[in-house]
Amino acid sequence: MTKKEIEKAFIYPLFSKVVYTLNTLLGEKEMELILKESKNKKYENTSKASSMSEDIYVLDSKNLKSLKQILEQQVKNYTVSFLNYKNNFQITTSWFTNTKKDGYSEFHYHPNAMFSGCFYIKTNPKTDKISFSNFNTPTWLLEPKEHNIYNSREMNFEVYPGFLILFPAEMYHRVKINVSSEERISLAFNVIPVEKFGYKDSTLNIIKCK
Questions:
Q1: Segment 10-32, tens digit of pLDDT
Q2: What is the pTM of this model?
Q3: How far apart are CA 68 and CA 58, in angstroms?
Q4: Pick from 49, 68, 96, 138: most CB atoms within 10 A?
């Protein structure tokens, strides 16, 4: 194939998973308030795993009202502006995670949610990452000359304070090992569609969920 032919060719990422990222650009005082709120929570006792707050509705706190509004707006941008859905969406559960040195989490997904998100509060931008993996069984296993979003089975995103990522809840993801001596703190949440959606015998009407 010639260079001109390659330039004329089109690639369609058909049935792809849409991941949304944003630098929220919150001010230093706002980030300090969110960090303080995370430190006031009780966490499940774990050893090497990433610890999760016992409170699974942290965004209902009055101290996080402005953050919740920001996250809700970004969920709207993601679902309406990019995915072109007509429905409204609601954040259901939300919780803090705390990953100390050598802490990590295994690959997992979030049931009972359509989308999930993670907002990073305290990280080491040089080393901290969130990793996504394609768990679908391939019929052929080939080694590409160079990995990209079309041929990779695992993809990492560098994370930093103020970074937001939204993704389909069925995507397998994990928290990679924290090699820093500093703890990594984030706020995760789940999202569902609300009001009436579906078609005929697949119609569902969710008024409000908590």
A1: 888 888 899 999 999 999 999 99
A2: 0.91
A3: 10
A4: 96
